[in-house]
Amino acid sequence: MTENNIAATQDIQQQKVNYKLLIRRLCFLTLGAAIVGFGLENFLVPNNIIDGGIVGVSIMLSYLTGLPLGVFTFCLNLPFLAFGFTVLGKKFVFLSLYSSAVLSIFVSIFHYTPNITYNPYLAFIFGGVTVGIGCGLILRNNGSLDGTEIVALIIGKKVPFSTGEIIMFMNLFIFVASAFVFNKEKAMFSILAYFVIYKSIDLVLEGIDEAKTVMIITSQPDDIAQKVLISLKRGVTFLDGKGAYSGEYKKILYCVITRLEIAKLKEIVHDIDPKAFIAITNAHEVEGGQVKKKKIV
After folding, report:
1. Stretch 54-61: mean pLDDT, rounded?
2. Strand order in the sheet with 237-242
3. I want to staple 72 with a disulfide (CB 3.0 to 4.6 A). Which of 22, 58, 121, 210 is the partner?
4. CB 70 within 8 A of CB 55
5. pTM of the model
6. Which of these, 98, 84, 90, 97, lies nearest to 163 by C-alpha position?
């Protein structure tokens, strides 16, 4: 087989992989949009509780005009997606556009299903969890339902505020507006729902076994490293360190584990060196290496 034939075969295989990945993403985007639509129409909307961003604005406009919610969730996102096309790329815009279109279909479908509860306490909790899980699936597959996040991302590059601060500022106006459209009590329930949605999204994106980075300062680094390699099957990296007070040079152990392995790691370290110093922090994203996180999607 010639080099050209080999290259052509590899290109075909890569295209197949890309198509499979795209189909997989579209399936999960559809599932995420369906879950969001269910949470909106069966928990939040019937109780006049809103989400932040475009969805929140859409719920208020639908309430004021009587037009279908799906019309606003789709149409209001279009200018924001067009605005972010050159910055975020056509793939992200396509997946976000697909997510918005599918969401508009599902909210129209679930609009005619019986409402589950009119208790605002149950509505903001279960609605927040449901919408958060759906949004998490969409975000995890490179889509988005909120055009305000795109604007915040672009504006954040030009002003001395973070993207999160800009989003919070915009949502503040949205929740204040909901107090006038509905009432103050509904606005407060909306803020609680937004908090639940935010935490549910984190759970989907990070998972219950989210990665943790660990740094261990010990007088017995080799023994601990060997035990971690054998017991946890995790790679360990040695870093060179020097104590500012003692002036002593020490090996610092660095490794990445899951949250479920923290207790076992502490047990290993303390059994070998009870005086060891352990620092554990969150790792928001990990790729490669030996850490295999359980994937939700």
Report:
1. 93
2. 237-242, 249-258, 211-217, 277-282
3. 58
4. no
5. 0.73
6. 84
